[in-house]
Amino acid sequence: xxxxxxxxxxxxxxxxxxxxxxxxxxxxxxxxxxxxxxxxxxxxxxxxxxxxxxxxxxxxxxxxxxxxxxxxxxxxxxxxxxxxxxxxxxxxxxxxxxxxxxxxxxxxxxxxxxxxxxxxxxxxxxxxxxxxxxxxxxxxxxxxxxxxxxxxxxxxxxxxxxxxxxxxxxxxxxxxxxxxxxxxxxxxxxxxxxxxxxxxxxxxxxxxxxxxxxxxxxxxxxxxxxxxxxxxxxxxxxxxxxxxxxxxxxxxxxxxxxxxxxxxxxxxxxxxxxxxxxxxxxxxxxxxxxxxxxxxxxxxxxxxxxxxxxxxxxxxxxxxxxxxxxxxxxxxxxxxxxxxxxxxxxxxxxxxxxxxxxxxxxxxxxxxxxxxxxxxxxxxxxxxxxxxxxxxxxxxxxxxxxxxxxxxxxxxxxxxxxxxxxxxxxxxxxxxxxxxxxxxxxxxxxxxxxxxxxxxxxxxxxxxxxxxxxxxxxxxxxxxxxxxxxxxxxxxxxxxxxxxxxxxxxxxxxxxxxxxxxxxxxxxxxxxxxxxxxxxxxxxxxxxxxxxxxxxxxxxxxxxxxxxxxxxxxxxxxxxxxxxxxxxxxxxxxxxxxxxxxxxxxxxxxxxxxxxxxxxxxxxxxxxxxxxxxxxxxxxxxxxxxxxxxxxxxxxxxxxxxxxxxxxxxxxxxxxxxxxxxxxxxxxxxxxxxxxxxxxxxxxxxxxxxxxxxxxxxxxxxxxxxxxxxxxxxxxxxxxxxxxxxxxxxxxxxxxxxxxxxxxxxxxxxxxxxxxxxxxxxxxxxxxxxxxxxxxxxxxxxxxxxxxxxxxxxxxxxxxxxxxxxxxxxxxxxxxxxxxxxxxxxxxxxxxxxxxxxxxxxxxxxxxxxxxxxxxxxxxxxxxxxxxxxxxxxxxxxxxxxxxxxxxxxxxxxxxxxxxxxxxxxxxxxxxxxxxxxxxxxxx
Length: 940
Fold this sequence. Notes:
By secondary structure, the protein is of the alpha/beta class. 47% of the residues lie in helices and 14% in strands. Strand 2 and strand 3 (35-43) form a beta hairpin.
């Protein structure tokens, strides 16, 4: 293989040369002997205007390319530069495809050479990266990328990235390279040309291999587990009460870990309340205002209590980001603060962890793998050299990769126990062992609730727990106690059962029967599976038609929804749905019975090898997955519980079977009371948003805490809201309940643009629907004719929430982030990262949302006022969450705009404002508000 590589990057006027797009800049860098040795760069005159958005993206103007050489003048020079070299680019299909097409127009050919895509190389060799966009990759690797989206700069950075990736490849042990060489044959890059000489070198010179740095076992290389230091038994470790002054004083333990430290009265108050609650075996709701230092406020007393009692305290969060924050930041701080050593661990649900036995087996089954599966296998091989936890959240898998994960994730059905050669290295069992010895166990609401209802506990026995983000506990319980299925889930179960490959459960079971000389035919099971598959296809098609026929609502992601009562729906179509469900039940039971009988015969046969046991365990997992889907159809369509609400969601423009079935309990308070609060000695629930108009009554009712004598307290934020934030309510806005939605949307767009254009500050605009967000986004885009604003829209701009936030933070000019749903909470934008918050509508849950509607109906049945006791409290808590996005530190200053006039024109509107901290509130025409309040704030 040539050791010369050329990286190419193009800037173009569009995506397709065949539709008139042309090259405007070429950047190329030559790499020889692992060093950059030459560069080629030129503007190219496209002989057409550069589109404004391309000019904005690249910074290349018509003046830059005017007088530059035409492409046919530089093509031969470029081909000479590339001669004899391997080709690489960051997204090869685009750069190679475009250049090839442009060369063809000139009667020239793209050179035949090896190719390497640094996107693909990065996905495999840097499997933990959040993003594989060039600018974000180079930023995370501390490479200075001065001019993103300019070809010469991008080519230079791609070359630096390629060299980094080659060094990473060098560091892989021989056994990993051997597996990669086979897996990567189906990938886009010519991996073999990179791996083969490296593998040969390590075989010829064993000293060049780094195998001793890893745990080499069977056919895998793993990161050597970090050995936990054995904690010395500490006699007379100080108690929390004895340590309070040393802990919180100006020169105390807490101050020693911060560069700048201020005593927070609220944090001290919270620590005392949490510890005393634990001591008294009580339940406690604590609303801790933003800036209190809530995490350490409960972690420190929890650690002291766990140390004193020698029993674990469980910390539960709702969101993964908070769990990661606790793990990566707060727990490390805690270990520095405490006057004693403490064990801490994170415990997640079993499906989060990789099953090494399954993965080892999957590596031998490559013949029918898709591109996504091969890519995921390669990623996991490299990730195993880096991970301590084996937790999929560390991995950046594609959607296809996440489907593959289901085949290799840990589960209880296929656990071979002592027969599993991987048992001592099992990530899930390692996490369980760590939890058994831990003082603090970090988990999530879902696992906390799973543990409550399962007979065999997952979390080690505990009696004291802190529930952070407690305003989500009811929602988490509703999700956990609910049920759902869809055609895709069934399809995955069928594909693993019988997909006409040697890897299907049926084929593996047939092989075992033959091998064991057991005379048992699976033909009737295969026929029953086919019948069940046909019925499932028909069922979801009929459900889709039915939902479109009787549509009564819409979700915020564009699906239609319909609440159904299975035994009271009318018409031949629904009757056909029930008949399909019954046939699925009959066929499914037959399949499970016959396959289970075959498995039993194999299990009872003599001389079961490890491979036999492994195959059988995998087969049991697949049968269990299929049985679960069959049971879900039965419970969702052929049973009816009046304590649940059942509904269908369908995508009107999606596939004819793009339909989803749901069931959720209408009220989870009794389940939480009986199965959780009654069984725990002390539960501390905390959040920044638990009260409505300073009352905890809503949370006490929804969580079933009435009979527990629950304590309540509100800890004030240390922020001076009166001087840090102003609430402005424009009076010149159309009625949100008006008949002309377009007029409202246009008016809101104009005001958003006017505020941001005037202030030149960053703004977050919060919506309650994607549809309105999209409309307002494009209206603002039209108003911003000179492209002076950076506009980032959830569901409009590509990328995850994390990526959109990163783009917003990095924007140098005035920027507007348009968000809904997840952007109302859990994002931290201090200082000049956010100075204006705009709330478009008061965040009432849609009245036609199935669970919400069922809760409203239930409230009416028991004589409650559903608006005052349900809808309004939910909206106020959501409103407070949104408000909390603005002020994140004592130095922040900002403005909140509320565009919903109901906040001042209705009798209930004051509840929203009264639930906020004491802040100055002004109402008036927008231009007056800008002149009198925004102008003054800008001057300050």
